[in-house]
Amino acid sequence: MAGYGHSSATGIDERTLGRVDVLLFDADYADGPAAVEDAWRVAVLAADPHLRAGHERARLDAVQAANLRRDPAARLLRLTTTRHRTALALAFVLAAAAAALVLSPRSGLALQVALLPAGLCAQASLALLSWLEPRRADGSLWGSRLPAVLILLVAGLWLLAASVAVTARWGETDAQRPLAPTSGLALLVVAAAGATVLWWRARRADEEGRQSGPRRLTGELINESDAAEVLAEMDAWWRVAGPAALTRDADRVRRVHVEVLARLAHARLISGAVARRLGGEAAPLRWRERRR
């Protein structure tokens, strides 16, 4: 989204502006009219962060209900929370630590001591990335800003560490006590192989485009023919949530709407003149979920 990072057009607070940017980053609008049509919905969701969580909850409930009708044993869909994003950060910290223990001589640890914790860190990182993959794939974890190629980079980093351990630092190991370093090396190599397999599966989700745009709404459906049903449920949610947001704080929602239009103008999806004209338009009488 080219408008991302520009200063506020109305002086609105940075947190709200950040929410606008996050929502627009993965919007993937087909054209200007699609973006304009979505502007009021983005404004409502950015103005009240609780509504954004409510929208996601309603979407998951609608998709889950459709899936369970198709297959009573369908995977349960749960809301992605701060706990999951913290786990993601921890996974990458552990991935970096696993490589650093081997690649950085300044760690102060001889390879005899460093390899086993490096392997354990890599395995723990892989376990977290595997657990989080369904959420990464459907875009609920961090949208399209977390592409599958990052998993491949992690695998490459671990493989590099294993190669350096064998070719450049193996002399630091004790031949009389080989269990710890060889076990650590094996864990590191297995983690790299596992991450490569995870990337191979994850890239298919990226190719399907389920992390952004309209596809984000129905990407977890077992059968795409249920999309109309899910969208109808979301229409019902919007018919209540949209007018209610304006009733609570119409001035704030209108200010955020102006910000959204300014972002679209920065992205050149609409002109500045159109943004200014639409900034004074009335809120929609009919609220419904995005289709395009």
Count of strand segments: 0
Q: Which percent band covers the strand fraction?
A: under 5%
> What is the number of helical segments per DSSP (H or I, 4+ residues)?
10
Q: Unreliable runs, pLDDT <50, ≥5 residues? A: none
**Structural class, from helix and strand content?**
mainly alpha
Order of helices and strands: HHHHHHHHHH
List the topology elements.
Blueprint: H1 14-25, H2 32-47, H3 49-70, H4 82-103, H5 111-137, H6 149-167, H7 179-208, H8 215-218, H9 227-266, H10 272-278
Helix pairs in contact: 1-2, 1-9, 2-3, 2-9, 3-9, 4-5, 4-6, 5-7, 6-7, 9-10
Comma- or semicolon-separated keywords:
292 residues; mainly alpha; 10 helices; elongated
Describe this structure in words.
The protein has 292 residues and is an all-alpha fold. The longest helix has 40 residues, at 227-266. 37% of the residues are buried. The chain has helices spanning 14-25, 32-47, 49-70, 82-103, 111-137, 149-167, 179-208, 215-218, 227-266, 272-278. The mean pLDDT is 91. The two termini are 16 Å apart.
